[in-house]
Design goal:
Number of strands: 10
Radius of gyration: 19 Å
Strand content: 15-25%
Shape: globular
Helix content: 25-40%
Oligomer: single chain
Order of helices and strands: EHEHEHEEHEEHEEHHEHHHH
Distance between the termini: 56 Å
Largest sheet: 10 strands, mixed
Amino acid sequence: MATPTDKPVFSIFIPTWNNLPFLQLCIESIEQNSAMAHEILIHVNDGSDGTLEWVRRKGYRYTHSDENVGVCWAMNGLRPLMTTDYVMYINDDMYMLPDWDLVLYEEVLRQPDNRWYLASTMIQPKAHPRRPNSVVEADFGRTPAEFDRQRLLESYRSLAPADWRGAVLPPTLVHRDMWDLVGGYSVEFSPGMASDPDFNAKLWLAGVRTFKGLGKSLCYHFMSVSVNRIVKNDGPIQFLRKYGMTIRAFQEQILHVDELWDDQKPDSPSVIRQELARSSVKKLLTVFKNMKTPTIWDHIKKSK
């Protein structure tokens, strides 16, 4: 059993982009529902909606960019601020539920080394079409204004699923040694499409084999989709060209996303070979595709 301490245990990275009501609720949940002390580190993209002023007034440690630089630059920029051994990535539209951190830390203490990647389980208003075991569908509101906090706090424990395989998306936890070993987030995936599976792939190549989601570490995800406000990079094609495998194949055949943890099936070399063959064809077909990837010229034009 982990013993609560006043010394920060996790360094919580929160990138935010003009999403102040969600950010305030997210941080409130961390401060009220955590069993241990943590340090909260925020990257403020733009912040003209009052976020920058609020973060400064509250005294949180932060980094800031005048424009939205995306999740990769934001996450890497926060790394020098951290003072703990663990990088915890939480999106600003997440409400962390009681003891979310204790469940994660107790799992960390069970690990024989630092080669692991852990995730909390999301409860959200809309089901994920390919994640029936790892995403819980339950609607407690889509905005802070309509958030039914009391009903959520009364019922969230009954919604907890079993532990699952294939931790991919935040809230996620990784040891800083592994973060540093793989170089954090790959900025060529800016502003961020497919940056999470890319980070997972780098960890896997570095020897991480435990990608585990914990059913009793829970958060509510409002699904405030900030990516709808940006010009997206073609992350899936970038991933395919970089690793020679589609994201779907990597997640399903290598990470076994959404399979129950206690129902592990062995890898199938024949299926993996088939997926690699399919991916090779798909990769070939992308040769003449003009990808949407921000260039230096795009930034020069934006700054004028």
